[in-house]
Structure formats: structure tokens, C-alpha cells
Design brief:
heterodimer; A: mainly alpha; 12 helices; B: alpha/beta; Coagulation Factor XIII, Chain A, domain 1; six-stranded mixed β-sheet; 10 helices; 19 strands
Chain lengths: 288, 437
């Protein structure tokens, strides 16, 4: 259905739109349909944003407080207590924060998206739209939070008198990579979560584990060289390394074989996620 | 002359299958070993389902269930078609398939034109958002573009009569305001094909009238409407033709009046009155009272689907096996939400209950015509010896669903008006002119 084709108060227009509904008929115009529903995507993302901080006392400040406190704790534990080294001459706290930003982006998309379908049950049972819209709309919320934490990073750089160089121009690319890295597993788990609610218990565990397995509180250069490639199987490693390469003004080196591997893993996960989501999408309304 | 091009919806052999699971009959003795074995079996099956990507089914036995089967029909451009049938007949499943929410398991449907479906009022309304925000949200969900909503915004607000509360979160709205706002958005949808489930069953009468008027207006513009309702007078007033579904199949498709007649007539042969015989036989033995037969009658026909314009007889046929004092035969009428509307005793309001001698008795109560409202009730019965015991254990399993179709005086005055009252007695009024001018 494409509302923009219908002028208000005009008599029913004869369109050539023909829709055939059949068992197992894959939606041929799936991506076109997704484009037609872009307004719904925008409005759902806007709804999630609008609702997010209603009835909270400090509102948007939550998006600043949480990463800031995490950064302080990680700097203290990994930098002071464990005495791990930073990337080059970059202040340890900025190095941590440059890793925390993509990690927060990744983990919030993963957890928000995987819960999104179940919490929008009423929509799915009553109205048709490409279901991909719902988990994807959560990306927007995560990106807005990301933008706020980016402001915090700028403030920290001013405080430490630490300036990034031309590499920062590549940051948007790595943001996209971060979103794609989270979207693949998120879609896969979202679809599984519709059928098997066990997965909602797995996500918080996965996120907690990931915070320590991924190079958030430390630089991935502390990982022994022979393990570095294996370590890069974790797709977040590539994203975090990329962020540090962009933001730390040449203090952080990009380990290219590892980065390539991470990107390949991201692509693989994305393919699995989208394929599985699309294969099960048709049955969501029957299962929820 | 209807050409092929005029057909906007064509269903061919449409069917929808669900898999349901249920627990096997309980064994008399439950051994821990059996429970564990069953647990392992279930886990094994869940794991297999997980691997094969099948939906998980709870229960020991898995059964296939066709909610819709072999459904064929054609709808022409500009037609308003009513879909009727009892609960579980497959009406909602049909609408869900046509609005693409769920996929058919067999057959196919071709739809020529863009469909908007209205299966619920206020889909996606968010309580934290304001009235204004919810209009945009709900409009977008129903398939309106932002520009379209903007163009109709004032009209929607005026229709809903909520101007003053536009910037109040809808969680602070009264339920009436909430429903009005939700309706208002939906009423301004103007797709080529509109699929509407029983959404007009809420809201107050005056507002319902307004909505029906709006629907008629939309239909007048040559848009095709598929409309589900339990309210026969609404179907009669709005629809050119109707489809009667029963147990997932089409029973009749044609002229509205014929289909409604078939629905009301057909209702008499089916219904749980047949099942009641076995329920009565299974009642525990009572030394004094034995129920032989319980019946609900209209026009001397045994039925649970009655017309409000005719009286309904509630009949008890029973044996008294010994002398007894204070025996009370009762029926109780409940609303479907479980609230008691009234109860009635066979000895009326007599203070001293007479001595009842052994023998066979028939007690019959007549509910007058134009008394019940067009809705569904629950009818329960009791026989008790006052302050001694219930002769039919309570709460009784004999719990009948009484469907009332509005036909009488109360409803015929304004077709399409569905009284929100739980009862609709036709009461006597006297109006006299006291001062003439």
C-alpha cells in the first residue's frame, strides 16, 4: 500500500497494482516495498526517541552519564590497576572512550533490536509492513545516543588538549561498519527471539561478556601478536580498532589482516541475519 | 456489465492451517519417572523444532487445525461486502490473509489495488505520546503519508472532538476520548480497498452512528470495503452482499438479506445445546433432585441463537425423588465479562417455599420479547435446597452462550444503532402535552 499515490478526497483511482498472496511466495518486490514504507520507518524511529526519555528525571543526560562513568571505571581498572599501555601517546581515558563509543553503539542496537519485535506485538498482529522496519528503527535511537556521546568525546579532547588529525574524516565509514556489524547478529537473534523467548536471556549475558572480550577497556595491541588474527574474528574488534585509528591521531595503528577478517565476519553475519530474518518474517504474526 | 477488470479481490481455494498442541489426558497415577520421561521427550522435540526452524508447539499431542479452507469468492470494485459467522468461523483469519499479516497455507488471493486494513482501533497508539503525536503515529501505521495526515489533521481533530486535549498524553484521556481519537484517524483512511474488522463495536452509540455515516461516505466514492461484524443491522444497512463463514468454509455468498437469514436459521442446528445432554448425564447423583432436560426455546425451537424481538423460554424438566422444602430452581444471566445481570427463581419472591412432593416437574420461565440486548450472554443454572445444599454443584459446568440478534422494536427504530446497554427492555412511556402553544 502506498498512501502517497492516493490524493485526499479523490475518488478511488484505478491503479495497476496487483498483489498475489500465495503460500510460500517470496515477496518479489521486498526491497522496493521497504522503500515505500520509509515514512513508517521514520515515524517509528521518532516514536522510540520521543518515548525514550519521557518520565525520566535527567532525560537525555543518561546518554552522557552511563558511558562517562563506564569510561572512568575502565580507565581506573585497566589503566591504573592493571597498568596496561595505551595506544602510543594518547591519554588512556580517551583511548577507552574511543572504544566505548562503538561498543555502546553495537550493544545497544543488539539489545534494543532483539527486543523490538516482541514489544511491538500489537503492530505485527494487526497491520502489514516489512517487518525489517522495526528492528532497523532502533538503529536511529542508538545513533542519536552515539551523537551525544560524541559531544562528550569532543569535550574530553579539549580537556586533554588532544587533537585528532585528517584520519577523523574516515569516521563515518566506521560508524556504518559498526551499525552493520550489530545489524547482522541483531536480526538473527530478533527472528529467533520471536520463536524462542530463551534468547532474551542470552542477550544481556552476551553484552556483558562482550564488554570484556572486546578491546573496550584496553587497546587490542596488548593482545599477543600470534593471537591477533584469531582475536579479530570478533567483528567488534575491527570496528573498535577502526575508531581508534580515526580518532587517536595516528597514535593507534590499524592491524590490516585482522581488520580485513573482521569486515569479512561482519559481512557474513549480515548475510545470515538478513536471510534468516526474511525466511521467518512471514510467520511472525502467527507466532507472536 | 461486470468485466474481468472489475474484480478487485479474487480468492481461489484459500486456506490457512495452524498447528496446535494439547496435553494428553492425565493419567490417574502420575509417576515421577513418567513426568521426567515426558519432559525429556518434549525437550527433544523442542530441540528438533529449533534445528528445523519450525514453530514450537506446547503439549504432548500435535494436531493440525484449519482455520480457513477452500474459500473462493470474487469481489467487484466499489462493492461493500459483509463477512459474518460465529466466533472461530474464520472471519479474522480471512481478513488477516487479505491484509497480508499472515500468509495462506494453500490457495491464492489476487488483489487489484492497494489495501488498508483496520483490524483494531488505535493500533500502535502510545500512551506516553500526546494526541497530536498519536495522530501522526497511528496515521503512518495505517498507511497514510505525512502530507495526507497534515491535510486532514484539522478534520480528524474536529471529528474526534478532542481539540482541547491535543497536547495531553493519551494516557490521561478518558476511554471515550481515546476511542474517538482512534476512530477519527481510521475514519479518514481512504484507500482503494478497505478491510475492516469488528471495530465499530466500541464507543458510544452517537459516535458509532457518525462512524457508520463516514463508512457509507467512503463506500459511496467507489471504494471497495470488506467488513466483519456481529451486528446484523449494521451489515444490513451497509453491505450490498455478504459472505457467511462457518468452520472455516463459505456457507453462503450472496444477497445480504439471504445471508443474514441463513446465518440466523443455521444457528439453530448448531450450538452447544446438544452438548448439554451429556453434561446433564454427568451431573453427580443427588438424592432429591434429578435434572432430566434443560432447554432454551424460541418459537418452540431449541436454540441458543435467539432474536431479541421474540420471547425466550427457559425450561427445566426434572424429577423430585423425595419430599423436600425450600427447593429453588434458578437461572442466572451473565454478561460475557462475568458480571451478573440478573437471576430468577422458579418460586418467584414467595417467602415460604412450599413442600414439594415426589414426581416429575417442568418449570418454565419466559423472558419477554424486547428485553434482551443484541449481544452475547452467558446463561447458568442452579437447583438448590435453600440453606442446605446445591443440587447442581456450583459453579455449574452448564454455562451456555446465548447469542441475541437484534430484531425487535428497540432496535428497528434506528437501523445501525447498536445499544451499548446490557439489557434493552422496551418500557412503556407516556407523553402528554401539558401546555400547548
Amino acid at each position: 500500500m502506498s498512501p502517497q499515490d492516493i490524493a485526499p478526497d479523490a475518488p478511488a483511482k484505478v491503479t495497476d497494482h496487483l498483489l498475489i498472496l500465495e503460500a510460500g511466495r517470496a515477496e518479489r518486490h521486498y526491497w522496493l516495498d521497504l522503500w515505500r514504507y520509509r515514512e513508517l520507518f521514520v515515524i517509528l524511529a521518532w516514536r522510540d526517541l520521543a518515548v525514550r526519555y519521557k518520565q525520566t528525571v535527567i532525560g537525555v543526560a543518561w546518554a552522557v552519564v552511563r558511558p562517562f562513568l563506564t569510561m572512568l571505571i575502565f580507565t581506573f581498572i585497566f589503566g591504573r590497576v592493571a597498568k596496561l599501555h595505551s595506544d602510543g601517546a594518547a591519554p588512556y581515558s580517551i583511548m577507552v572512550f574511543a572504544g566505548l563509543m562503538p561498543w555502546t553503539l553495537f550493544s545497544s542496537i543488539l539489545s534494543e533490536a532483539s527486543a523490538s519485535l516482541v514489544s511491538n506485538t500489537n503492530l505485527i498482529g494487526k497491520i502489514y509492513f516489512p517487518r525489517l522496519i522495526i528492528p532497523s528503527a532502533t538503529i536511529v535511537v542508538a545513533l542519536v545516543d552515539f551523537a551525544i556521546t560524541f559531544g562528550l568525546l569532543v569535550a574530553m579532547m579539549v580537556w586533554f588538549r588532544f587533537a585528532p588529525d585528517w584520519r577523523i574524516l574516515f569516521l563515518p565509514l566506521f560508524i556504518v561498519l559498526g551499525v552493520l556489524a550489530s545489524l547482522g547478529p541483531a536480526l538473527f537473534i530478533t527472528a529467533l527471539n520471536v520463536k524462542y523467548r530463551d534468547f532474551r536471556y542470552i542477550i544481556p549475558f552476551l553484552v556483558q561478556l562482550g564488554t570484556y572480550v572486546s578491546p573496550v577497556g584496553f587497546s587490542s595491541s596488548v593482545v599477543p601478536a600470534q593471537w591477533r588474527l584469531f582475536y579479530s574474528l570478533n567483528p567488534v574488534v575491527g570496528v573498535i580498532d577502526g575508531f581508534r585509528w580515526c580518532l587517536l591521531g595516528g597514535q593507534s595503528q590499524l592491524y590490516l589482516p585482522g581488520f580485513g577478517l573482521s569486515v569479512a565476519v561482519v559481512a557474513g553475519f549480515l548475510w545470515i541475519g538478513v536471510a534468516y530474518f526474511r525466511a521467518t518474517e512471514r510467520t511472525f504474526a502467527d507466532l507472536l | 456489465m461486470a468485466t474481468n477488470d472489475d474484480i478487485v479481490i479474487r480468492a481461489e481455494g484459500l486456506g490457512k492451517k495452524y498447528t496446535i498442541g494439547h496435553t494428553a489426558e492425565r493419567q490417574r497415577y502420575v509417576a515421577l519417572r513418567d513426568v521426567m520421561a515426558r519432559g525429556v521427550r518434549n525437550l527433544q522435540r523442542s530441540a528438533m523444532d529449533l534445528i528445523r526452524g519450525r514453530p514450537m508447539v506446547v503439549g504432548d499431542e500435535v494436531e493440525e487445525f484449519w482455520a480457513l479452507r477452500d474459500v473462493n469468492f470474487e469481489i467487484k470494485r466499489g462493492e461493500v461486502v459483509g463477512v459474518i459467522g460465529r466466533n472461530g468461523a474464520g472471519k479474522s483469519t480471512l481478513l488477516k490473509i487479505l491484509s497480508r499479516i499472515t500468509e495462506p497455507s494453500e490457495g491464492r488471493a489476487s488483489i487489484h489495488g492497494r489495501v488498508a486494513s483496520l483490524l483494531e482501533v488505535g493500533t500502535g497508539f502510545h500512551p506516553e505520546l500526546t494526541g497530536r503525536e498519536n495522530i501522526y503515529l497511528n496515521g503512518a501505521i495505517l498507511g497514510m503519508s505525512r502530507a495526507e495526515i497534515k491535510a486532514k489533521f484539522d478534520e480528524i481533530v474536529a471529528f474526534a472532538e478532542v481539540e482541547k486535549f491535543l497536547d495531553t498524553p493519551v494516557k490521561r484521556y478518558s476511554s471515550g476520548m481515546y476511542v474517538r481519537l482512534a476512530f477519527a484517524v481510521a475514519a479518514h483512511l481512504e484507500p482503494e480497498i478497505l478491510v475492516v474488522d469488528e471495530v465499530l463495536a466500541v464507543g458510544d452509540g452517537a459516535f458509532q452512528q457518525k462512524c457508520l455515516g463516514k463508512m457509507g461516505e467512503i463506500a459511496g466514492k467507489g471504494r471497495t470495503i470488506l467488513f466483519v461484524s456481529h451486528n446484523m443491522s449494521t451489515i444490513q444497512a451497509l453491505c450490498d452482499s455478504a459472505i457467511l463463514l462457518s468452520h472455516g468454509r463459505i456457507l453462503l455468498n450472496g444477497d445480504t438479506a439471504d445471508v443474514i437469514r441463513k446465518y440466523i436459521d443455521g444457528a439453530q442446528s448448531i450450538g452447544s445445546l446438544r452438548d448439554i445432554t451429556s453434561l446433564i448425564e454427568n451431573l453427580p447423583h443427588d438424592p432429591i433432585f434429578r435434572l432430566r432436560r434443560f432447554d432454551v426455546l424460541q418459537d418452540e425451537q431449541s436454540t441458543l441463537n435467539v432474536l431479541s424481538g421474540k420471547p425466550v423460554d427457559i425450561l427445566f424438566d426434572y424429577d423430585i425423588l423425595g419430599e423436600v422444602r425450600d427447593l429453588i430452581i434458578t437461572f442466572l444471566l451473565y454478561d460475557t465479562d462475568g458480571s451478573l445481570l440478573f437471576e430468577s427463581f422458579h418460586n418467584g419472591d414467595s417467602e415460604i417455599s412450599p413442600l414439594t412432593h415426589p414426581g416429575r416437574y417442568v418449570s418454565c420461565c419466559r423472558i419477554p420479547s424486547d428485553f434482551l440486548a443484541p449481544r452475547t450472554y452467558e446463561l447458568r443454572i442452579n437447583a438448590a435446597i435453600h440453606r442446605v445444599r446445591d443440587c447442581i454443584p456450583q459453579p455449574s459446568e452448564i454455562n451456555l452462550r446465548l447469542n441475541v440478534t437484534g430484531t425487535g422494536r428497540v432496535n428497528s427504530a434506528y437501523p445501525g444503532y447498536n445499544t451499548p446497554g446490557r439489557l434493552a427492555p422496551l418500557l412503556r412511556w407516556d407523553t402528554v402535552v401539558t401546555v400547548s402553544k
